[in-house]
């Protein structure tokens, strides 16, 4: 691919070059049971642009510094807490609850000697924004950079947590509907905030204006917002101009999850969009590929999202909204769409499913759960 400069930047945002703008000016409170570990972490954070790091050695001092920041600090932006200062899982959850009661807007990254699913669950229950291994400094810096832009989920008594933001990228109108229409409907129903980004008007397959209207209606049926760009159908590139166009929507929607075409695809536009999206979304923690009708046998799905009858009906209705294409495309045949979903259902616990090939899932528990049927 030609956008070498994009590829060179660290995927996890851990290089000083990358993280500095993100962390620049941040004021951070850090607790660790060991002074040497604390000062190594503080030094690495400062190297990455954090303006002030105040370290403490106990949970009590952590809470106290939360209540009364030193005179040079107006307020904390982020806190890092060593779970070894707490007790068992319930203590961990309770301690985080205490922190957030006192500092509702200050996200906590938890460091842990040996993060386990059980530990991560306890941290999630306590609304920690992340859990990283205690001596993984690059991991800590990446987590802190991400936390800078997160607000911890509100407690059950407050307003609801920020909905999950999902961005689904396709080269042409109807690509997203065919590959992930059921998933979009399912997640929209669950309250996710979903944006479909279509990079061309599909002029090669009909009147671009009509296809634009159809795409809008289809997005509505699935419960998503539509952003439509105007790249040339058939000759979409994976170079920096495409990357920048995708980055625009990424910056605007701040996705937690991105779905896109797979690289194992015979259509050059689909492959280009896959590659450009990988670059544009290099800091998005979760990315997976849906199946296009032009996917090759090298497409290897490893997650299967179970769909209900109504998810499948919404998918079919969204595809029908692309009326200009009906009849002229073999892959829009309803019988084929239905039986494909039924076939993938075999790998889920639901009657129907859509497959995903997970490229990245940087969540302690694994975000793309096997089945939601
Ligand atoms: Zn397409």
Automatic annotation (TrEMBL):
GO molecular function, one term: hydrolase activity, acting on carbon-nitrogen (but not peptide) bonds, in linear amides
InterPro entries assigned: CheY-like_superfamily (IPR011006), GlcNAc_PI_deacetylase-related (IPR003737), LmbE-like_dom_sf (IPR024078), Sig_transdc_resp-reg_receiver (IPR001789)
All residue ranges annotated as the Response regulatory domain in the record: 27-149
4-aspartylphosphate found at: 82
Keyword Nuclease carried by entry: no
Chain segments carrying region Disordered: 1-20
PROSITE patterns: RESPONSE_REGULATORY
Highest taxon, organism lineage: Bacteria
UniProt biased composition (Basic and acidic residues): 9-20
Keywords, sorted A to Z: Phosphoprotein, Zinc
Biological process per Gene Ontology, one example term: glycoside metabolic process
Pfam families noted in UniProt: PIG-L
PANTHER family documented for this protein: N-ACETYL-ALPHA-D-GLUCOSAMINYL L-MALATE DEACETYLASE 1, N-ACETYLGLUCOSAMINYL-PHOSPHATIDYLINOSITOL DE-N-ACETYLASE-RELATED
Protein name: PIG-L deacetylase family protein
